[in-house]
Design brief:
The longest helix is centred in the middle third of the chain and has 29 residues, at 102-130. This protein has a 7-stranded parallel β-sheet with strand order 3-2-1-4-5-6-7, sandwiched between helices. The termini are far apart. By secondary structure, it is an alpha/beta fold. Helix 1 (17-28) packs parallel to helix 2. It has one domain (8-187, 218-241): Rossmann fold, CATH 3.40.50. It is globular, with a radius of gyration of 17 Å. It is built from 9 helices and 7 strands.
């Protein structure tokens, strides 16, 4: 039997990058995958179909509480459950701190932090009712090494870790786990475009890793699959760095 057979998973940011790669892995593992994104996720739908999976695409701005509530109503109304919630959507503008205006600061926190509030408020009740749930959030190992110029991004991803630790304590008795995966610098279409001005950034980071190659989304999905499976039932409140050994303390 596949590790996620019979499970319903909601993945934000599933139209591309890490979210897309994990949607495909979840489908391969047997889950029904709800892809929530403001972007066109038709490519993800095709990738899921290629591995024989089932998907539901929902356009949703996860910074909007009402849109997330409607997403939850559609998922639970259609499938009568939500077993796995993964918030993979995020933004990471490279802006020196003194050039960050408060609107940009709030925009980063709205997607990277506040969306976790909206999503968990919406989907946690269904997990508690069923007595089984996996909440997986995405942080970054940049939180541990303080790479600039990402003060707002780094602060927001630190908040994700704190949120997961506290929430895990509250929901453990309901059969729900809450964990965080912290990747390093992952090459995706978005990061590749954003790093164009930073010539050699991927190579420089890879040189600092124990595994000296650039990280890809496919390097994350195995750990993410494990943390959302039955095998991780006694693991909660943890942050797993999956970064090729970039951070080793």
């Amino acid at each position: 039997m596949k590790s996620h057979s019979g499970k319903v998973a909601v993945v934000t940011g599933g139209a591309s990058g890490i979210g897309q790669a994990f949607c495909q892995r979840l489908a391969r593992d047997g889950a029904v995958v709800v892809v929530a994104d403001v972007a066109d996720a038709s490519e993800t739908e095709r990738l899921i179909a290629d591995v024989g999976g089932t998907s539901l695409l929902v356009s949703c701005d996860v910074t909007d509480h009402e849109q997330v509530a409607r997403l939850s109503q559609e998922v639970v109304g259609t499938h009568a459950r939500c077993d796995i919630l993964v918030h993979a959507a995020g933004i990471y503008p490279a802006t020196p701190f003194l050039d960050i205006d408060f609107d940009e600061w709030r925009r980063v926190f709205a997607l990277n932090v506040d969306a976790n509030y909206h999503l968990t408020q919406a989907f946690l009740p269904a997990m508690q009712d069923s007595g089984w749930g996996r909440i997986l959030l995405v942080s970054t190992t940049v939180f541990f090494n303080g790479l600039g110029p990402f003060a707002h991004y780094t602060a927001s991803k630190g908040a994700v870790i704190g949120f997961a630790r506290a929430l895990a304590f509250e929901v453990g008795d309901f059969g729900v786990t809450v964990n965080v995966v912290a990747p390093g610098l992952v090459r995706t279409p978005t990061t590749a475009a954003g790093m164009q001005a930073e010539t050699g950034m991927f190579e420089a980071v890879a040189a600092q890793q124990a595994i000296k190659r650039t990280q890809l989304p496919s390097d994350l999905v195995g750990a993410m699959s494990f943390l959302t499976s039955d095998d991780a039932a006694f693991i909660t409140g943890q942050t797993l760095a999956v970064d090729g050994g970039w951070v080793r303390n």
